[in-house]
Amino acid sequence: MATTARSRTHADRRSAAHSSDAAVAAVFESYPPRIRSKLKALRRLILGTARTTKGVGAIEEALRWGQPSYLTSETGSGSTIRIDRVKSAPDLVAIYFHCQTDLVAGFRELYPALTYGGNRSILLDTAKPLPESELRHCIARALTYHLHKRGTQRK
Predict the structure, then answer these.
(1) Is 139 exposed, middle or buried (0-12, 13-18, 19+ CB in 10 A)?
(2) Residue of 113, 117, 92, 89 whose CA lies nearest to 103
(3) What is the DSSP letter of 58?
(4) Beta-carbon neighbour count of residue 14 at 10 Å?
(5) Ramachandran class of 135: left when φ > 0, alpha when ψ lies in -120 to 50, beta otherwise
(6) For 51-71, how does the pLDDT look when each residue is reduced to its tens digit (9 = 90+)?
(7) What does the DSSP assignment read for 92-106?
(8) Dihedrals φ, ψ of 84, to 5°?
(9) Which of 38, 57, 69, 73 has a CA between 20 and 30 Å from the CA of residue 17?
């Protein structure tokens, strides 16, 4: 019988979280200091926004495609957010959103001054301060994406 996330025991989830924590920490440590610092600032912003956004619940931090990723596993309220360096541009990091959503298109309308990577990411220069207010709003929208989508479908 296959084990699903819902059928795991509390001890299994705690053990999986611990190994995930170690794997995520290892990825952060593999980045050069400037990249690591900016990605950790993004991580703090994501986790802080999740804590203060109604309906999000606990965030699961895991690796997806080798990237630190943030999932709304407890509530299913949102779309996964990933963060990573931009391999083709050594001074950029990105916050990635699911490309089959309209999230980045909406962000582009709200915040045209931000730099985007197609329909899937916001690109950030490691030498510049994070646009925290704008990012906090974008993150909150991603973390509640399914809540808003469900609400729209009911109307």
Answers:
(1) buried
(2) 117
(3) P
(4) 10
(5) alpha
(6) 999 999 999 999 999 999 999
(7) EEEEEE-TTSSHHHH
(8) -170, 170
(9) 38
